[in-house]
Specification:
This protein is α/β, with parallel strands linked by helices. It has a single domain, classed as Rossmann fold (3-Layer(aba) Sandwich), CATH 3.40.50. 39% of the residues lie in helices and 23% in strands. The chain has nine helices and ten strands. Strands 6-7-8-3-9-10 form a six-stranded mixed β-sheet. Strands 2-1-4-5 form a four-stranded antiparallel β-sheet, with helices on one face. Strand 4 and strand 5 form a beta hairpin. Helix 3 runs parallel beside helix 5 and helix 5 runs parallel beside helix 6. The radius of gyration is 20 Å and the shape is globular. The structure holds adenosine-5'-diphosphate and magnesium ion. The site of adenosine-5'-diphosphate (ADP) has 11 residues, from strand 2 and helix 1.
Length: 270
């Protein structure tokens, strides 16, 4: 289980550029639940994931994962519990290393042993089997450099690496946004397979209303660093992409209203 309470993060605090990216955000994700998060640009989706993973240190609040308070743990330590896939296919893998070497790194995540043992025949056989299961033909390219892979192949591989050892939490941040529709579908199919098979507790950010409507068992919408909308169960199952677009539209109208009220108020004082 993942639990955030009162998590707050302001960038450039105390300057004119202060930006409150997370505003006392609280969220409880049940073991094995797949939460899909949507929200406009800058609503705090990536900061939420960065706060959980320890890439960003929070100003206040508590983060508990699998029964341990991890709020002050360094990112490295949290990485033993958390798997991540980012939008950028280049972020998840080590350049200049082969497919097999990258996988070996993922396989020993959280261990102190060196790389030497990792490519023995027994490990290679396991790598081959698990890569073959992806169904994208990478099993015959284990010794190729990561640089030769397409974006979609890299994301498939990154997903495999992030879940190689069953993580307590899988964080996906728009991990198909940089792919063409066919590749995106393929990576979504793989995501579904692994999340379902391993019953992974998952927090997935997406820009795609179609994905948000169809995937996961719960949907949250972030707005200005808060959870504005939270729906699960049968109501989530009924959601259509149009419903989500409508909600976005309603928020946008409200913002414009806010802006015009602010304008009026300013007007009174000049
Ligand atoms: N490292 C950072 N330094 C300064 N500002 C940041 C940083 N990361 C995010 N922000 C700001 O925080 C807000 C939320 O950003 P982010 O979480 O990336 O939004 P989203 O992923 O929903 O588009 C934005 O205004 C963004 O500019
Ligand atoms: Mg983002």
């Amino acid at each position: 289980m993942l639990e955030l309470s009162g998590v707050t993060k302001t960038f450039h605090a105390g300057t004119p550029n202060a930006m409150c990216a997370l505003a006392e955000l609280s969220l409880r994700v049940a073991e094995g639940s797949w939460v899909v998060a949507i929200g406009g640009n800058g609503s705090g989706k990536s900061t939420l994931q960065n706060a959980i993973a320890g890439t960003v240190a929070v100003d206040a609040g508590r983060i508990v994962l699998a029964g341990q308070e991890i709020t002050r743990w360094p990112e490295q330590r949290r990485a033993a519990l958390i798997g991540r896939v980012f939008q950028d296919p280049y972020r998840g893998t080590a350049p200049g290393m082969t497919v097999a070497e990258n996988l070996a790194l993922a396989a020993r995540r959280g261990e102190r042993r060196g790389l030497g043992w990792a490519l023995g025949w027994r490990v290679r056989r396991e790598l081959r089997e698990r890569v073959a299961r992806l169904g994208v033909g990478l099993e015959d390219r284990l010794d190729e450099e990561i640089g030769t892979l397409s974006g979609g192949e890299r994301q498939a591989l990154t997903l495999l690496m992030a879940t190689w050892r069953r993580p307590q939490l899988l964080l996906l941040d728009e991990h198909t946004a940089a792919l063409d529709p066919r590749r995106a579908d393929q990576v979504i199919r793989l995501t579904r397979e692994v999340v379902t098979r391993e019953r992974l507790t998952t927090l997935m950010v997406t820009h795609s209303m179609a994905q948000a409507a169809v995937l996961g068992d719960r949907l949250i919408m972030l707005h200005r660093g808060r959870v504005l909308y939270d729906v699960g169960g049968a109501e989530k199952a009924r959601l259509r992409p149009e419903d989500l677009l409508e909600r976005f539209e309603a928020i946008r109208r409200e913002e414009q209203l806010d802006a015009s009220v602010a304008e009026m108020l300013r007007g009174q004082y000049v």
